[in-house]
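Box 3.1 A note on notation
Throughout this textbook, protein chains are presented in two layers. The first layer is the amino acid sequence; the second is a C-alpha cell string describing backbone geometry. Keep the layers aligned when reading.
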Amino acid sequence: MEGTPATATTLGPDSGLPARLRPLASPIEPLPGGDDGEITRTMRVLPRAARARVEVPTLRVVAGRDMLSFVTLHGSEEIVLGRDEAAEMTLTDALVSRRHARVSMHEDQSITIQDLGSTNGTSVNGSPVERAVLRPGDHLEVGGVSLRLDMLSLEEIEHLANVVARLKLQNRDPLTGLLTRGWLEEELPPLMDRVARNRDSLSCIFFDIDDFKQVNDRFGHHIGDDVLVACARLMLYGVRDNDPCIRYGGEEIVMFLAQADAPAALEVAERVRKEVFAHDWNRTAPGLRVSVSAGVARRLAGETAREWMERADKALFAAKRAGRNQVVIDNS
C-alpha cells in the first residue's frame, strides 16, 4: 500500500462509540506509549488549546460490536476495511468481507470509498455504491457495520484513544468493557479516603437502561447486548479518562466523579441521558428506541460507601417512578 501508514485503533467484538458526546473535561492521562504514528506524535507536541483547533478526518463505527473502532486519515493514503486481520481497519461483523472496501485520501484532500467486490456491498447515506466521494457527516454501511466520517479535533481523538486503552485493560466486564463490581471493594475505599483527605467532592451516578426487558423481548438478547455495549461506550466517552465506570449488575451502570459536587454530577448525568436518547438506535435495530434513568448523590462527610450508594440508588428509583428517561438528584 502506498502513502503514509494509517493511524488506526480497532477494538474487538465488544466495543462501542458515542456519536456527539463531549467529555466532561480535557483528557487527563497521556496516550498509551509506543510509536502511534504522525497523528498521536502531533498530539504530544501541540499545546492543548492547539489540539482542540486542529481537525482530522476520522472514520468511526457508530453501531454494533465494533462500535469504538476508528481510523484517522492523513497525508495521501489508502485504508482497507474488512474482516481480514491484515486490514487497516478490522471489522468483526460476519456480513463484512475479508477485504470489503478501500477508503482513500488523495493529495487534494478529497476522500473516496471503493467497494472491493464484497459479498454484501457498500452503501453511502443509504445508497449502494461501487465508488463514491465522502464528505464529513456521511454514513457508510460496510456489510452489516455502520460507520460515519467526521472531522475530529486532536483533543477528541486523544480522548477516544484513551477510552479505547481503558477498554483493553484487564479485570473488565467481558461484554461492556466496564469495570466489574470487584472494583468497589478494592479501589473505592482508597478513592474515598483520598478525596476526603483533599477535602474534595465525590459524587456517584447510578444509571439504568429503561424497559430493558422489553428490548430483549422484542428485539432479542443479541440486540439487548448491543444496547448494553453502546450505552457503556456513550457513558465512558462522556466522562474524564480516569472517572471509574462499573457494570453494577444487569443493565445498571454506576460511575464515580471526583472533584465533582452534586450539581456538576447532575450536569454529567443529564448530558449522558440526552446523548443516549438522541443516539441513532435504528442503526442497531429498526424501530429501536433506548433511554436511561439516573440517580445522583454526593458523598457526605463520614458516610459509608453503602449509605452513599443507597441514596444514589433511591434517587434512581425515584427517576424510574416519575416516568423514566430523567435524572433525580438526592439533596441530602
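The longest strand covers residues 145-153. The radius of gyration is 20 Å.
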